Amino acid sequence: MSAYRPTDLAKQWGCSERALRKLARDIGACRILGKAMWLTDDDVRAIEEAVRFRPAESSATMRGAASLPLPAGDYEILRASRDTKRRRGRGGHGQGG
Fold this sequence. Notes:
Layout: E1 3-4, H1 6-13, H2 17-27, E2 31-33, E3 36-40, H3 41-50, H4 59-63, H5 75-88
Antiparallel strand pairs: 1-3, 2-3
């Protein structure tokens, strides 16, 4: 079993020692005796897993919009319908009047 010092790992990973120590404490991946802290191989793996990048879901998927059914009709009909709604909603904008 290897023991790692937060100072050495922080330099190796290019992060602050303070941030590494806080994360290790927050997730319980460290050994502390008094003011001394050290990390085992398992602790290092746990920290690496905690900071692993995970792509976030899109906000539409989180709201459930991705599961909504698509509107019925063919694309050109839907597009014409959309254009008609736009024309009705203009209400004189851009007219010199």
